[in-house]
Write a structure and sequence with these properties.
globular, 37% helix, disordered C terminus, 12-stranded mixed β-sheet, 17% strand, single chain
Length: 353
């Protein structure tokens, strides 16, 4: 038997070594492996301790997608941003510009009672996060935190206008292209924008709005048995059209339940499903909501990895890969990561039917 060929990692060309480090640093939720690690950032955090050069190499991978699912994680990320400001003041080599690396931010909480209890503290952290939140192209946020974010941005805008009258009519620097609202545990009739401050400069800049749906009727939409208008009517009515002047599309994402499945297993242990994204053309809808061309059932099922345009104003897109759904615990952060990744959905066909 010939001896195995071995080599040291340090013998690799620098370019190849960097590629290996970047791949190793990718959080588990952005890869095809099972989402089993408690901390998806564990590999990247360990690599950051190797050297300053390795830290600068892997930080963009670590910061690309930020999941803040508890008050504690919100506080820790806010503190990390404050540390970068301290590094700037001391001219430390450890400074890293987070705003250049963060592309997606997820903010959600399961315990809204805790949020209300620590409301002032959470608002302070939200203010610290604004430089990152306003430049991240994709933001997913729960309804409670959205209200807090809108108020924080509005206060920042008001302070800016008070300081400089010339800036009063200049556009607010919001680069968010996709806003996803997580409404875990809420029905499709929930008025998410009911308590949102009117005239929001943040909402005015959003071109794409997505809800993560949990309604019982979505399986029938997946099967083409009912019109999506039945489920979306309340949400469409809730959207503050006067404030969201730049809105181009409204979408809802939900499990793609096109085939029979075991309800008991789904409720007790969870099952793997594809994710379907239903998108409405807002420009066409606003022209005449009463005559908007909602698709009429029955209509063909959209297959995994495909996109179908069912009318001038409605389209469906289904992910190629599956994610795990449990009736009592939707892992929406994985769904969202799947939907917002550039390679998350492959459109092999786009046929009008």
């Amino acid at each position: 038997m010939e001896p195995a060929i071995t080599f040291r990692f340090s013998d690799l060309p620098l370019e190849l070594a960097f590629l290996v480090l970047k791949y190793a640093a990718k959080p588990t939720f952005s890869q095809k492996e099972s989402h089993t690690d408690e901390n998806p950032y564990a590999n990247a955090l360990s690599l950051c301790r190797v050297s300053r050069l390795v830290r600068c190499t892997v930080l963009p991978e670590l910061l690309h997608t930020i999941l803040l699912c508890r008050c504690g994680s919100l506080r820790m990320f806010a503190n990390a941003l404050l540390m970068q400001q301290a590094y700037v003041e001391t001219k430390s080599d450890l400074f890293f510009d987070y705003t250049s690396a963060v592309q997606r931010v997820w903010i959600s909480h399961n315990d809204f009672a805790e949020l209300r209890l620590h409301n002032s503290e959470v608002k302070k952290h939200m203010t610290s996060l604004l430089p990152v939140l306003l430049v991240a192209p994709a933001l997913a946020i729960d309804w409670f935190s959205l209200n807090l974010l809108v108020r924080t941005v509005q206060d920042a805008w008001t302070s800016r206008a008070d300081l400089d009258v010339d800036d009063r009519h200049s556009p607010f620097p919001v680069r968010t292209k996709s806003l996803t609202i997580t409404a875990r545990g809420l029905s499709t009739n929930w008025n998410i924008f009911r308590h949102i401050r009117k005239g929001s400069v943040f909402l005015a800049s959003i071109p794409h709005l997505t809800y993560l749906g949990e309604g019982a009727g979505f399986p029938d939409v997946s099967r083409g048995l009912i019109s999506p208008e039945v489920l979306l009517r309340a949400w469409m009515h809730d959207i503050p059209w006067a404030d969201m002047k730049n809105l181009q599309t409204f979408s809802v994402a939900y499990p793609h339940l096109d085939a029979p499945y075991d309800l008991a297993t789904y409720m007790e242990n969870g099952l793997d499903f594809h994710v379907e994204r239903l998108t409405v053309n807002v420009s066409l809808f606003k022209q005449d909501p009463a005559s908007f061309p909602w698709v009429t059932p029955p209509f063909p099922v959209t297959n995994p990895g495909e996109k179908s345009i069912r009318s001038d104003g409605v389209s469906f897109k289904v992910t190629h890969d599956r994610v795990n759904f449990w009736h009592y615990f939707f892992k929406w952060e994985r769904v969202w990561a799947c939907l917002t990744m550039a390679h998350g959905v492959s459109s092999r066909s786009s046929n009008r039917q």
